Amino acid sequence: MGLLMLLAAGAGAAGAVAAAPVVLATVGFTSAGIAVGSYAASMMSAAAVANGGGVAAGSLVAVLQAAGAAGIPVAAQAAVGATGAGVAAVLGILI
């Protein structure tokens, strides 16, 4: 693994960890709750309709809302960073 590959993997990991909270807020999972009229609100509505009026605990909407409201846990940040590093390394090989 060359130096360029290591740099790409590091940048991918850092970029993914930094971008995750921004992406959550952008789609509507904010610290104040789900933003009205956002993509997150549409997801919540669809989940509630599918579950008979409520959003199930542990569902994707519930997990993303928890991450948006309380922040992303360290273990999840590690997973996001590892994924970002892997994607960047693969792109480094292809480019």
UniProtKB/TrEMBL annotation:
Keyword annotations from UniProtKB, A to Z: Membrane, Signal, Transmembrane, Transmembrane helix
Statement: the UniProt record of this protein carries the keyword Cytoplasm: no
Gene Ontology CC terms: mitochondrial membrane
Location relative to the cell: Membrane
Signal peptide range: 1-19
Protein name: Interferon alpha-inducible protein 27-like protein 2A
Family designation: Belongs to the IFI6/IFI27 family.
